[in-house]
Design a protein that fits this description.
The complex is a heterodimer. By secondary structure, chain A is an all-beta fold. Chain A has no helices and eleven strands. In chain A, β7 and β8 form a beta hairpin. The chains are: A mainly beta, B mainly beta.
Chain lengths: 114, 115
């Protein structure tokens, strides 16, 4: 089974819509991450969760709301987004946040805000 | 300040030849990790290789090796015997143990393998 899965793979939404991105990891990891990848920019870390507790929030606008109900699942709730939020959103997991473990990524959700 | 620099936006290599992708980093910490990822057009980031700052030997994983020069703060990726399937974006990343394993990524290098 694929290590990290993300749904949906593609999403088009209007600025007034509310949608959620889902991530699931099957690796038994304890830390999960959301990244935003925009064209010609480095990956931007948005949120870090360790054992279901948020440990990092890099000044992300409140229109992005993460949720981590357990160590295997991570959600990103979206509402009243802007066109500049269109990007590839990547989820990742690692064994833990406190050591230099490699992160395993999902295939991403390509989000377009119209 | 940008912590990871990849100065080659695009690279071409002949199939079966070796290629080096450059990466330099900026840190005053003694303990950190360096990673390389491959991103095909499908979008998934694939972990390739890891080098710890205290590792004395260069990391190798199959056809991938990391040329780690700590004093120069460089961590170049060497791909030997390039294959058509190696065509992708390649990202260098660095993590710090005291920041929740936060990764800092470079802007990437697009590699095209020519038959």
């Amino acid at each position: 089974e694929t290590g990290v899965t993300q749904t949906p793979r593609h999403l088009v939404m209007g600025m007034t819509n509310k949608k959620s991105l889902k991530c699931e990891q099957h690796l038994g990891h304890n830390a999960m991450y959301w990244y935003k990848q925009s064209a010609k920019k480095p990956l931007e870390l948005m949120f870090v969760y360790s054992l279901e507790e948020r440990v990092e929030n890099n000044s992300v606008p409140s229109r992005f709301s993460p949720e981590c109900p357990n160590s295997s699942h991570l959600f990103l709730h979206l509402h009243t987004l802007q066109p500049e939020d269109s990007a590839l959103y990547l989820c990742a997991s690692s064994q833990g946040p406190g050591d230099m473990y490699e992160q395993y990524f999902g295939p991403g959700t390509r989000l377009t805000v119209t | 300040a940008q912590k990871i620099t990849q100065t080659q936006p695009g690279m071409f290599v002949q199939e079966k030849e070796a290629v080096t992708l450059d990466c330099t980093y900026d840190t005053s910490d003694q303990s950190y990790g360096l990673f390389w990822y491959k991103q095909p057009s499908s979008g998934e980031m694939i972990f390739l290789i890891y080098q710890g700052s205290y590792d004395e030997q260069n990391a190798t994983e199959g056809r991938y090796s990391l040329n780690f020069q700590k004093a120069r703060k460089s961590a170049n990726l060497v791909i030997s015997a390039s294959q058509l399937g190696d065509s992708a974006m390649y990202f260098c990343a660095m993590s710090y143990p005291n920041t929740g394993n936060q990764f800092y990524f470079g802007t990437g290098t697009s590699l095209t393998v020519i038959p």
